[in-house]
Amino acid sequence: MTNLTLKLHISLLQNHILMIDDNELNRLYPDHQLSGRTECVYHWLDMYYGRLLDAGCSYGYATRYYTEKCNEIYAIDIDPHLIEIAKKKYSNINFIVSAIEKVPFPDNYFDMIVFSDVLEHTSNQIQSLNELYRVLKIGGDIIITAPHKGLFTILDPYNYGYYLMKYLPFLYRIAYRIIKGGNSNAEIGNPQHNNKHYHYSEKELFSLLDKSAFANNYQVIFKKKSGLLLEPLTLNFERIMQFFTKEPTISKVMNPFRKLTSYDYRINYSFASYNLAIKINKIS
User: Fold this and answer.
1) Above 80 in pLDDT, residue 189?
2) What's the pLDDT tens digit per position in 253-265?
3) Which of 32, 34, 105, 170 is 20 to 30 A away from residue 41, measured at CA?
């Protein structure tokens, strides 16, 4: 997408989103409670950072909490639609459309970077880490969370489409067309299903860091494995509900399960855990 095309696309999105009233916007993009990995990140943030970057912010539902822990905050996401939603919902935050692999900031710019469950979505993991290293100040911190290669990785609902497309492409096309109401364009499929939603072991995550610009230039402050079965079960249940109902009904039904999942996130299940989080300090 060229810069001119992107600007036109964003302009159209802005006009569309401005037409959505606040009640409808909050129904479609609800505020999330401080829980799970967001709660972990929030409590790992020191008081008080000068400048913070939320790298991969979606529509800012977690970013809004981080404003309490810094003087100045920026948030980036590759999806222009989500960024425009974020700008309307949380106007006090600097939201920018950007890929992680090439961020629009100078060297040594941020005191803290939050990189929460985003690494597995990047097109180039090493380049993404290199860029975050570049814009992080010496002495600055970065928090990385990611899905852990635990006991119930197979239940990750984000991978069902990937496995179906890879091993049963004919069945995938039929299922996708049914979901899309018979639309002929549905044969193309969902681009998100082209890549696996990757889960990392602790060794693999640190191996990536050691292959990037962070190699020999960081020290570990915290690391944590947590959560077991409740998160993948809740995610699967939520996916099933999306076939039958919409927001705010989904949130009303799912909130008790999300609370249980949040409690489960605090428990360390060692090698079996579903989640992985680390906080490291850039020393040079």
Assistant:
1) no
2) 988 999 999 999 9
3) 105
The CA-based angle 272-275-280, given to 5 degrees, is: 120
Tokens of 207: 């191996």
Angstrom distances, CA of residue 81 to CA of 12, 158, 190: 10, 20, 17
The three-point CA angle 259-38-141 to 5° equals: 155
Retrieve residue 283's tokens. Answer: 């020393």
Distances (CA, A) of 144 to 16, 84, 133, 251: 34, 25, 12, 27
Q: What is the distance in angstroms between the CA of the first residue and the CA of the last residue of the chain?
A: 36
43 token code pair: 């409590």
CB-neighbour burial class of residue 172 (10 A; exposed 0-12, middle 13-18, buried 19+): buried
Helices 3-18 and 80-89, packing angle to 10 deg: 40
Buried b (16+ CB within 10 A) or exposed e, 189-214: beeebeeebbbbebeebbebbeebbb
Q: Could you report the per-residue pLDDT of 119-162, keeping only the tens digit for each?
A: 999 999 999 999 999 999 999 999 999 999 999 999 999 999 89
Residue 49 and residue 69: Cα distance in Å, rounded?
6
The span from the CA of 156 to the CA of 274, in Å, is 9
Per the listing, tokens 């990785």 go with 153
